[in-house]
């Protein structure tokens, strides 16, 4: 029993080192902008760059749009599937798992070729979307599907959708009342955890924004990473705190429920 | 009966549906709310994938050809890109699976303080999502030329990590970086699975005179094996599709399939659009096979872990 305990501690220590050393190193590195002393100069430089606020603001905006559209798409679908079409649940779930089959870089490649004038009927492109942020937000919604669906699906499983809906209907409630006052409050925790995870994913996303040429925090970080030496690490610390904040909030809200989290890299 | 159903449907039109089993006519209405979701999936998931498939067989002048697919297996750059991508993914999936499992075991069953467990799950949630550009920067600050670990090893032990030709900007280096989001994912998935091992099984084994080794060899491990393998496949896909981390870390130094596809997108570097599509198709095919494996293993895992 004793030796087992020692091994457990050793493995834990290695794990913690792997977790924390890069974070510690990044933080230490970000403080060294001025030679031979530790200062927050890199943070001052980073935060006085108007480009930082611009790209951060853009990412925030993309994240909000993604969250709204993802919720509009997933919540009614999942609700309907639970109430009326349980047979369709595996199919809906299959679709939401597709982002694991089609990597982001492949999806963005396919999208940009298809909607960049490729969808032709009789030689004329019928749907060109490359000039609008539709592809970007649609791509982010796709990325958010597995997490959003899983969260909402778990939430719906915990409540008796059929009974709740049919009771409400027989008591004369309209659809607006059912959705806003019965289903939504019951799903609040589930929805919030989906929202925070989506937020964390979109805020640091690089692949879609970079390859579709939209301003965002991810490409901005990459850009300064190629140009400067210490501010990128300061940005990495900011980004880490952002992820930590979102996921921490999510896990705090969803205490007790089992969650699986993965990201799109 | 048919008449009743018809009247019911007529009544329910535009009104709240009744609480009766839906009739045949009502089934069309049942499908309606699912239309936006499947329309979205068709437009932004299936059509782009299908277009990649079709264009993989398109020659430069628009005709049909197998040349692009053949090129995947004959052009040295492509073979190398697939080899590198596959080996990084397999190595980090196996490494992440083994270490992640040990870590989950240590935290769940290793007799460590309870508080560490919540901490570890939360941290794994964050770490498995901490990827892409900032992760690349973090490892440059850790093991790059002026990195903390590099300097520390040099100052404290006089050990130069670059002496043996090692550089962080290599396949080994990138594997170390990928491991940062790989093993936390394993911890996240294996922790509930380890929790699902009923105490009674261990006790039953002990009552029958089984040793701890026998419990693990003949009971716990076979039960966990499907979820272990399944998660390893998930980790494989996780690394195989990674673009942001690799790009921010090494630019286009390391010849990976996602990097090649990205380069092809930014400017037709292969001078043939069909080749880019074929490269992407190859990724979809490999990912599809791994997902089929994952789903069937998940089914097996669900048998015991309820």
Characterization of the model:
The complex is a heterodimer of chains A (265) and B (306). Chain A is mostly helical. Helices cover 75% and strands 2% of the residues of chain A. Chain A has one domain (34-253): MetI-like fold, CATH 1.10.3720. Chain A has eleven helices and two strands. With 306 residues, chain B is mainly alpha-helical. Chain B has one domain (75-304): MetI-like (MetI-like fold), CATH 1.10.3720. Chain B contains 14 helices and no strands. The longest helix of chain B is centred in the first third of the chain and has 34 residues, at 76-109. The model of chain B is unreliable at 1-14 (pLDDT under 50). Chains A and B meet through helix 1, helix 3, helix 4, helix 5 and helix 6 of A and helix 3, helix 5, helix 6, helix 7 and helix 9 of B.
Q: Could you tell me the strand content of chain B as a percent range? A: under 5%
The dominant shape of chain A is globular
CATH superfamily of chain B: MetI-like
How would you write the strand order of the largest sheet of chain A?
A: 1-2
Query: Separation of termini of chain B?
Result: 42 Å
The number of helices of chain A is 11
> What structural category arises from helix and sheet content of chain B?
mainly alpha
List the helices and strands and how they pair.
The complex is a heterodimer of chains A (265) and B (306).
Chain A: H1 2-30, H2 41-47, H3 50-83, H4 89-101, H5 104-115, E1 120-121, E2 124-125, H6 134-158, H7 161-170, H8 175-203, H9 207-211, H10 217-227, H11 231-253
Antiparallel strand pairs in A: 1-2
Chain B: H1 2-12, H2 26-31, H3 35-55, H4 67-74, H5 76-109, H6 114-129, H7 133-143, H8 148-157, H9 171-195, H10 199-207, H11 212-240, H12 244-250, H13 257-266, H14 273-304
Keywords:
A: 265 residues; mainly alpha; MetI-like fold; two-stranded antiparallel ribbon; disordered C terminus; B: 306 residues; globular; disordered N terminus
């Amino acid at each position: 029993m004793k030796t087992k305990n020692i091994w457990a501690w050793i493995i834990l220590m290695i794990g913690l080192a792997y977790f924390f050393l890069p974070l510690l190193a990044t933080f230490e590195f970000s403080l060294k902008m001025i030679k031979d002393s530790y200062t927050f100069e890199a943070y001052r430089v980073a935060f006085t760059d108007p480009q930082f606020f611009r790209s951060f603001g853009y990412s925030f905006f993309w994240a909000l749009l993604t969250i709204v559209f993802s919720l509009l798409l997933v919540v009614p679908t999942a609700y309907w599937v639970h109430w009326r079409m349980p047979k369709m649940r595996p199919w809906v779930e299959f679709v939401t798992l597709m982002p694991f089959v089609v990597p982001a870089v492949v999806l963005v490649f396919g999208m940009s070729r298809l909607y960049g004038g490729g969808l032709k009927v009789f030689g004329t492109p019928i749907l060109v979307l490359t000039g609008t942020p539709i592809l970007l937000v649609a791509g982010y919604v796709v990325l958010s599907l597995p997490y959003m669906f899983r969260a909402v699906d778990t939430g719906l499983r915990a409540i008796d959708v059929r009974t709740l809906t049919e009771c409400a209907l027989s008591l004369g409630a309209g659809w607006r009342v059912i959705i806003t006052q019965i289903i939504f409050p019951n799903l609040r925790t589930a929805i919030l955890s989906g929202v925070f995870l989506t937020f964390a994913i979109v805020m640091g996303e690089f692949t879609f924004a970079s390859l579709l040429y939209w301003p965002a925090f991810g490409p901005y970080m990459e850009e300064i990473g190629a140009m400067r030496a210490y501010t990128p690490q300061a940005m990495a610390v900011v980004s880490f705190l952002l992820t930590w904040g979102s996921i921490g909030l999510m896990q705090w809200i969803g205490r007790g429920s089992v969650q699986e989290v993965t990201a799109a890299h | 009966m048919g008449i009743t159903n018809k009247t019911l449907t007529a009544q329910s039109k535009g009104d709240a549906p009744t609480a009766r089993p839906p009739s045949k006519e009502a089934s069309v209405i049942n499908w309606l709310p699912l239309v936006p979701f499947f329309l979205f999936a068709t437009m932004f998931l299936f059509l782009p994938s299908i277009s990649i498939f079709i264009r993989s067989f398109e020659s430069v002048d628009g005709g049909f050809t197998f040349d692009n697919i053949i090129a995947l297996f004959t052009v040295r750059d492509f073979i190398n890109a697939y080899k590198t991508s596959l080996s990084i993914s397999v190595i980090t999936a196996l490494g992440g699976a083994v270490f992640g499992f040990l870590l989950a075991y240590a935290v769940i069953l290793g007799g460590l303080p309870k508080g560490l467990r919540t901490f570890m799950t939360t941290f794994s949630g964050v770490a498995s999502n901490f990827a892409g550009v900032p992760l690349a920067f973090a490892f440059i600050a850790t093991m790059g030329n002026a990195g903390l670990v590099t300097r520390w090893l040099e100052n404290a032990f006089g050990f130069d990590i670059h002496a043996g030709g090692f550089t962080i900007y290599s396949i080994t280096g990138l594997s170390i970086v990928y491991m940062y989001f790989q093993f936390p994912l394993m911890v996240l998935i294996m922790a509930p699975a380890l929790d699902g091992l009923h105490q009674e099984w261990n006790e039953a084994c002990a009552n029958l005179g089984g040793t701890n080794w026998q419990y693990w060899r003949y009971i716990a491990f076979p039960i966990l094996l499907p979820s272990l393998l399944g998660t390893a496949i998930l980790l494989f896909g996780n690394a195989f599709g990674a673009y942001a981390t690799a790009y921010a870390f090494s630019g286009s130094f390391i010849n990976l399939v996602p990097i090649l596809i990205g380069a092809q997108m930014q400017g037709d570097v292969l001078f043939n659009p069909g080749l880019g599509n074929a490269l992407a198709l190859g990724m979809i095919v490999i990912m599809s096979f791994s997902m089929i494996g994952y789903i069937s293993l998940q089914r097996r895992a669900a048998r015991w872990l309820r």
